[in-house]
Every structure is written in structure tokens, then in C-alpha cells.
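Final report, results section. Input specification for complex C-07:
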Amino acid sequence: MLRSWRRRRILARHSIPDVLWDSTVAATPAVAWLDAGARRRLRDLALLFLHDKSLEPAGDIVLDDAMRVRIALLACQPILELGLDSYAAFASVIVYPEAFLVRDREHVDEDGVVHRGDEVLTGEAWEQGPVILSWPDVQASGRGEGYNVVAHEFAHKLDMLDGAANGLPPLHEGMDVAAWEADFDSAYDDLATRLGRGEQPWIDPYAVQDPAEFFAVMAELFFDVPASLEAEYPQVYRQLAAFFRQDPTGRAGGPRTSPASP
Ligand SMILES: [Zn+2]
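Structure output:
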């Protein structure tokens, strides 16, 4: 295949320098659980990502190699076992120097009411378009603090593989759609109920905006604070472990599938 030939050639001729890679990994506690082999594959994947996607600065930001590698590492963590083809539907990542203002945005809430207004966003994933990220939020991502705008936006991209983002990405063979929906619905309802009672759970209330956001926020927690997610919503954790084919806490059980080629 031309594509795999091209990828092998990139991997043979280029590399992310050791110092740069090691410092990026050290600054990303979210990947600390990966063993040496998984880290090597993540590094290869990040290199291919940087050759495949155009990282475009917006405004006056200048993207240096350290920034590019950080974005690539965080973007590739969700597809470590899925492969780069999962991101075939888009070509670019746009990086803003700060949270960006989107004017006159339309938003339809759960009751079907349309709201219009300006929104300040830290990231966004366009259907059939680029991923947009704010650099300070990329910096804050992957630090094991429960925040990961990169995992969040790229999870939307995986959700969009079978159409509009709806919280149900295309599941692998052997996974059960009804079980997925039941597990996500029950966690969603639990969080919405607690928020409705005036509680202040540790999970960002933005999760219950709609099922697509819930999936993206759960993916964010899965990679950033997996043990906390597993303690809160074990079924959701297990579904995500099966979907991403990764098990950060090592407790999801079930058959591990062989790693995908990059
Ligand atoms: Zn989102």
C-alpha cells in the first residue's frame, strides 16, 4: 500500500529528537502509565501525525517544535491503538494564542431551544473540518488534573467517524451498542440529577450539555484522570477502555486486542 510505504519511509528518515520527546513525555503525566513499547509507538504515531496534518498558527502565535510535539503527542494518545487512519477525515489543526471568540454562534439546547450569542472557546472540532485549539489549554492538558482539551476535541473527531457527533462513535466488533448507550445514559442521568439537586460534582457540568459533549468529557477524564473516572463511572470507564483499546488503570479486564499499525 502506498500509504504504508510512505509511512515507513517517514519513520526511516525522520525522528522526533530524544530531548524533545523525553521532555514532552515528562510534562505529560497522562502518558506515564504507558510502557516503553507503547511510548515508542506513540512517538512514531506523533511523528506521522506531524507529517500528515498541517498545524496552523492563528493570530500572532508562533508554533515551535516543542509545541508541535506536545500537540501531536496529546492528539495521538487516543488513537494509539486505533491508528492514524482514524484521523483521515481532516487535514489541519489550527492553534490560537488564547481562548478564541466565536461570534453569533447558534446553540440548540436539550429542549430544542435555539440560543444565539458569542462564545469563548478553548477548542473546537468541525465536522469535515479542522480541529481548533487554544495553546494555553493545550499546555494545561494531559497533566493528570482532569483537563484535556486535546483528548476532548479529538474524541469528537472519532465520534464524527460515523456522521455527526452524538456520543456514539463507531464501535468495534464485539462491542454492544445497546450496552454502550445504557452505560453512558445512566452516567449522564446521574450527573444531570446531581447537578439538578445543586450538588457540585468534580466533573465539569459542561458534560451534560448533550451526549456528544458527555462522550468527549468522559474521554478527557479517561486519559487524564482514569482512576477517578473508573471510581465514579466504572461502566463508562470499561466502555472507553474497549473503544480506545487502552486500559490506563489495568482493571478493565476483557480481551486485549493486538496493537494497530500506525
Ligand atoms: Zn466538546
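Strands lie at 54-57, 92-96, 100-108, 114-121, 123-125, 131-134. Residues 2-244 form a domain with the Cyclin A; domain 1 fold (CATH 1.10.472.150). This concludes the modelling results for the funded period.
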